[in-house]
Amino acid sequence: MMTFSIGDKVTAIYKTGKYIGEITDIKPTVCVVRILAVLKHPVQGDLHNPRQTDVAFFHERKALAFREQANIPAKMVKPYEGEIPDYNESLKQTFDSLKFSLEKEETAFAAKSLDALNEIKREYELMYNLQF
Length: 132
Prior knowledge:
Layout: E1 9-14, E2 17-26, E3 30-40, E4 69-73, E5 77-79, H1 87-103, H2 108-128
Antiparallel strand pairs: 1-2, 1-5, 2-3, 3-4
Helix pairs in contact: 1-2
GO molecular function, one term: kinase activity
Keywords: Kinase, Transferase
Organism: Falsibacillus albus
């Protein structure tokens, strides 16, 4: 297992999203990561039944917020070197990328995911003053 220090810049996978952040605390099996940018927007739906629409609750999954801190399993944290993109720009780019890939699919999952993303988009516009 890698050893990290507080303040290290890292990539972190949380549920189905991927982020750039900095370590703010280290516990035996998790790193607390402050989110600085989004590398991959979370996939919509039920984590336990990926790409299924016939589930009890189809989740709207927003990206972790700027400077939000999350407990991330240490095995899902890797060192990061390089420029850290602007959070709002990275959020918009990853959102648009996910939306574009879903628009190319003609599946029930894609349609339901696009509905969820439209709801999330309204929240992002209010929270971050983003224009999509």
